[in-house]
Amino acid sequence: MEGTLVKIRADVVTEGALVITCFPSVGMVSSVVGHYLIDNLELEFVGGVVDPRLPPLTLVTDGKPMPIIRAYAGKPECSIDGCDKIILLMSELVIPSPLVHDIVWALYDWSKGSKIRMGILVDAFSKEGLGGNSGIEEPTVDYEDTDGIDLLGIGATDTVCDLLKDMDVPLLTGGVIRGMNGVLLSEARRRAIDVMSVMVEADPRFPDARAAAALVKKLNAILPTTHLDDQPLLEEAQLLEEQLKSLLSQAAPSEAPSPSSMLYG
């Protein structure tokens, strides 16, 4: 096998689908949102992306092996014209930079042949004054920091820019988006494909379920008949905060736990 291949189960109908991507982000927001959507929209594992240059490993969940970049599908209704199904692509692994362009091109070639309707990229950026050491290629954004959790949007076409405005998501006026999401956006603009990024302000020091809940609320504008309940994520955020405080209070100053040692789950 050579190059990147998108392998989706043959019985999955892709025409008119909304594709949601969840690649590694600040505060593990994309991972939290991805798992939440899989559970609450009852999405089924249907395949993934394979490339011989990806690290030779597999993710094991509930005793079953999964590819590094995996795909899930389901049929929740959405408010976008022509959309009656969702395909979610996600990975917890940061895609190596030399592979990013090939994987992005393979995804767009697949989306064209599969007649995909639109794409949403789930992403996050660090709260002002905080920097992450997560190993991901963090976005650099200029924004007005408020007391609440801020959201920003990027649209590859005028159509999705208008949709972001309807969702009350301010458009990002300046910044740099790196890695998979950056190339997905720029290639969508070049190909004139309806792709948007919804970015949420997150704390890079631990899994930020509260930021994930704020983003899920915005997705309700696109999935109104499903009505995603953000309360479980808010409860998870409180649990994570309590666990972190407990760890910090029990550890000596020189033995304080590293944020990177914490896992979501």
Task: Write up what this structure looks like.
There is one protein chain. With 265 residues, the chain is of the alpha/beta class. The protein has one domain (11-244): Rossmann fold (3-Layer(aba) Sandwich), CATH 3.40.50.10900. The chain is built from six helices and twelve strands. The strands form three sheets. Strands 1-3-6-7-2-8-12-10 form an eight-stranded mixed beta sheet, sandwiched between helices. Strand 4 and strand 5 form a beta hairpin. The longest helix has 20 residues, at 231-250. Residues 252-265 have low confidence and may be disordered.
Topology, element by element:
Elements: E1 5-8, E2 18-22, H1 29-40, E3 44-50, E4 59-61, E5 64-66, E6 69-74, E7 86-90, H2 97-114, E8 118-126, E9 140-141, E10 151-155, H3 158-166, E11 175-176, H4 179-191, E12 195-202, H5 209-219, H6 231-250
Helix pairs in contact: 1-5, 2-4, 5-6
